[in-house]
Amino acid sequence: xxKIKISGEAGxxxxxxxxxxxxxxxxxxxxxxxxYRNAVPDPGASPDFMARLWGRIDAQRSFIYRLRxxxxxxxxxxxxxxxxxxxxxxxxxxxxxxxxGTYVDILADAHPEDVLAxxxxxxxxxxxxxx
Length: 131
Description:
By secondary structure, the chain is an all-alpha fold. It is built from 6 helices and no strands. The chain has helices at 9-39, 49-60, 63-89, 103-110, 112-118, 123-130. It starts with 8 loop residues before the first helix and ends with a helix.
């Protein structure tokens, strides 16, 4: 920004003009503040000040805030229910010893007729010979 220095008589007149203009602006600002003080009274600290303040804050909270809060409560309740269910029902379930062998062995034990069919033996022939 350019600064121009005015010297001599013109400089003094310019400073005097700025001084009177600033004084006039200061007086206008002071009168504006005084009018504001008169228009808006000072809030007195009454015993129910905080209650009224929180009442206004609660009134301004939106539906989304309430919905989000209810969702948080629901998630926390579900988590507690899952934990309680796990703690209460885990000791009640029977734990069988794991079966020995591989997955194929367990399947073969579960379906013996299929195992015999893969080896070429037929159950109906075996049953006929036994009778």
